[in-house]
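Provenance

Sequences were taken from public entries as deposited. Structures were produced by running a predictor on each sequence independently, with no templates supplied. The record for Replication factor C small subunit from Halobellus limi is shown for reference.
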Amino acid sequence: MSEADASEGAPAGREIWIEKYRPESFEDIYGQEEIVERLRSYVERDDLPHLLFSGPAGVGKTTAATAIAREVYGDDWRNNFLELNASDERGIDVVRDRIKNFARSSFGGYDHRIIFLDEADSLTDDAQSALRRTMEQFSDNTRFILSCNYSSKIIDPIQSRCAVFRFSPLSDDAVRQQVEDIAAAEGIEVTEDGLDALVYAASGDMRRAINSLQAAATTGDVVDEEAVYLITSTARPEQIEEMVEAAIDGDFASARSQLETLLVDTGMAGGDVIDQLHRSAWEFDLDERTTVRLMERIGEADYRITAGANERVQLEALLASLAAEE
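Predicted structure for Replication factor C small subunit:
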């Protein structure tokens, strides 16, 4: 039984939409067209190599892995597909025991089984070395699909044994299309402004877009811009721009007041403010020299917050430095 079938048996309103609408085949995947085409050719030629998927969260890495299993094994895919999350099971024992036991176990009718190791960049170096040897030992009857956020954290001997696929953040059109399809399927009215807000808040992350849609849909009959920004604790782009422009114009008190609104009233974390500043910096109506100066200040604040400094102090210092240079 598929995830969609399982979720249909759940009480109304309690389905998790990211699972209910998870694509089950290559045709259902939104975005990543070039990657999907290459993966489809592997399956059609029955020539599946070890694979390494890298990229940010919510862009289709896990979905692509399960779609491969469904295409290769059909209804029997669960018996020939082992999924492990390396962030929970990081030790070398997992590689030596669970993976080896699955790779050794007998199966009928197929040339190989698939082991999907999610968040593989969380594996220790020793575990990755053990995984490399396991990949060699069971290459005759097992294919590995590794998923990670940062391929640079995967040791070179593993990367050289895999076909590497780099998943990019999904396009706004891909996110918009799936959100529209889900809203239509669920009978939800989404305004054009609300749709724009969902796409903006998602920032290329389909999982975030779907979760935000489901959360916003519980607040009323219509999903509009206000509901989306409230649910996602995201500032409107114009709020961020007004805050920065006030600081650049030397009005530190006004900029600080707007920052206070974002942190207290909107409930944003300092890191979220930094992320939105970084995303929007080149869209502000600023000259190039000022934008470069802003990016430099954003980098400094981000580094200090990551190192454990107080978020509000660093953000106020960022605005103060912009105001002081005028």
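The domain at 172-232 is CATH 1.10.8.60 (Helicase, Ruva Protein; domain 3).
The first helix runs from residue 3 to 8.
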